Every structure is written in C-alpha cells, then in structure tokens.
Amino acid sequence: MLHIDESDLQPLTIFHVGDIIRLISVTMRIKPIATLVVPLEVKEWFKRFCRHHDLIYFKDGPSDSYQTRVSVCVNEETKKLRKFLRSSKMEGGSLFVNIREKSNIAHEKKIVTDFLQMVNRLEGKMYGYPDCCVEFHAQKGPSSRAKAYEEFLESRRDQSVPVEFWAVAHAPCSSTCQETFALGRKYLGAVAEFSESLGRYVESRLLLPRFYQTGGGRFIDLQPLDYYRYREDLAVSKEQFEMEVRSRLPQPIEIVLCDVPKPYVLVEASEEPPYKTAFPNSDMIGTMWLAYTPEFGAYMVNARTGKLALYIISSKWIPKVGEEWRSKANFRICRSIKTAKKEEHIKM
Ligand SMILES: [Zn+2]
Fold first, then answer.
1. What is each CA distance from 141 to 9, 22, 116, 345, 346, in whole angstroms?
2. What's the confidence (pLDDT) of residue 6?
3. I want to staple 28 with a disulfide (CB 3.0 to 4.6 A). Which of 6, 84, 103, 190 is the partner?
4. 297-302 and 308-313 as β-strands: parallel, antiparallel, unpaired?
C-alpha cells in the first residue's frame, strides 16, 4: 500500500477512501456538499483541516463510540438547505410510517410517497449527483443500490469494475451510467490535483478487492495474502479453517486469507450466537480468514487469534432487513480496474 507524502495529510489514512474523495472534492469546490463518517481519533484534525480550507462543517447524523457523521460544504445557504431537507424527513418520520402502514386512504399514502421522493430528488441534486441516478434512487429506494452491481455480475464485469464507480457516493442507475463514470473521474482528478501522492494513495485503495454484504452498500476492502508466506504466524491453519467453514456454509465456498484495513464505518449490534452479524464491525480489522458462499452468507475469523469476526447467512439476515435487500450481488468479492483514457470501456 502506498503512503501519503505530506505529513499534514497523514490523518486522512484513517478515513475511508470514499470519504477522502468526497472531502477533497468539496475542498476543491467541484462538489457542493458531502456527508462523511469522521473517526473520533481524527476529529480535531478534521476541524483544523476544514478551517484551513474555509469549509463549513456540522454534525449530520448519529455518533457512537467510533465515529461521528458530519457534513461539509462551502456556504451557509447549502448548510441551511441541507438541515431543512433532513429535518423535513426526520420530523415526518413516525407519521409517515403510520400512514404508509395503517392508512387505508390511498391519496394519503400517495402524498407521503410523493413527498419523500421529492425530498430525495432535492437531496440528490444538492449533493451534485447525476439526474438519471437521482431519479432512479427516488423511484426505487435504497436497496436499488444493488442494481449496478447485479449488472456487473451478470455481464461478468464484477472483477473489472471501473474505479470511477467506486469513487462516487451515489447509487449508480446502471453499470453503464456515463454520468457516474464522468463524475467519478472528475472527483479523482480533483484529488490528484489537490495532492499527487494523495491521488496515488486513493487509487491504490480503490484498487483493493472489496467484499460485499449487500450490493453497493456494505463492504470491506481487503488485501489478499499468500498463505504459504504467512502460515507460520497464524493461529488458525488453512485446514482448520476449512473444516470449521464446512459445518457453517454450503458449497460452493470461496476462501481467502487477507488483511482488512479499517472499514468505512463500524457497526455495533446485539448478537445472537453462534451468529455475529454486525457488518462491518471492529473485529474484522487485521489478518482474516474469510469464507463466503455467494448470495448465501459469510464466515470470518481473525487468523492470528482465532476470534470470530463475522458469521451471517441470508436466512437470518434478510428477514430483519426486508426481502428487497435480497440480491445476487450479496456476499461476493468485486475487483476494480483503472480505466485510463478508455471511456469506451463502459459503453453498451
Ligand atoms: Zn445514472
């Protein structure tokens, strides 16, 4: 993994790569606003960075013992508009749920649906997302994130996703969305212009394989390791792990030894042993044995300590989150490629 040359930018390595791209894109004034997960250990550095670059920042979502959610923008009006849109959704929260679930007056349901779609459209525009993707997301909701990843999979391009698709914050309307590709390229250009070494660092992080729980939404980056080079240092051998996995996941099982850097967000949840379902969680950082059955589930242990990091199967998890999250893209590793000057690559 590359490093960042500038010592004053070192704390950025603690951020998720997507958040680095969004922060720098706002700093370079090519993105109007971004909402980031800021790890608590670099919160003070983040505030200094914002002051230095004349960025306005404000709390924008829940905080916990790991992180806080913050939005950054460059003018007060953007901040006020963001707060207004967010509060319109939050304040309507339980009323909307009640009307959707209980009201038998069709036009009331339609008012709620239209209102939430309108707020989503305005938010999408405000964040600078492409119109095609904003409309798609407004119509289909959050689980539509999986669509582009399903398309990559179906067309056998899930091992060669253009890095631009992983540089954007929005859900692409399709795996061939030219607007998404162009926006991703623009963001990456802004990062490289801000700092050449940061640009190289960001690119190397985007090129790491990613393990997805749901298409597009929850993932961890991973650096595959050569077992024969590391096996002396491991508490859990390949054979041991393979045996453990066979009683927990059905075939076809894929297994990988890997280093996992800190994920974009850390989730805490009350667990129901033998399952461990919080994804991504803090026990996943380090040298891991990861096994997964595509679409079905995953099992992961720390290879140096043997501690369980993840055990989740779709029949436990889908009932909790809803059938709309079931996707062929669940529980898979995607890989990305650089697409220098090859925009024709994603044309239909
Ligand atoms: Zn689009």
1. 36, 22, 10, 28, 25
2. 86
3. 190
4. antiparallel
Ligand 1 centre distance from Cα of residue 180 (Å): 6
Ligand 1 geometric centre to CA of 216 (Å): 14
Give the pLDDT mean for 222-227: 96
Write down the domain spans for the chain: 216-326
Rounded (5°) CA angle 338-343-328: 65
Spacing, Cα 8 to ligand 1 middle (Å)? 36
What is the 174 CA–ligand 1 centroid distance (Å)?
A: 6
Cα(347) to ligand 1 centroid in Å equals 13
Quick one: pLDDT at residue 348? 46
Ligand 1 center–CA 335 separation, angstroms = 21
pLDDT above 90 for 140: no
89 CA distance to ligand 1 centroid (A)?
A: 24
One-letter amino acid at 179 equals E
pTM of the model: 0.89
* Preceding peptide of 172 cis, ω within 30°: no
Distance 184 CA to ligand 1 centre (A): 12
Tokens of 45: 């550095």
pLDDT at residue 250 above 90? Answer: yes
Average pLDDT of every residue of the chain: 90
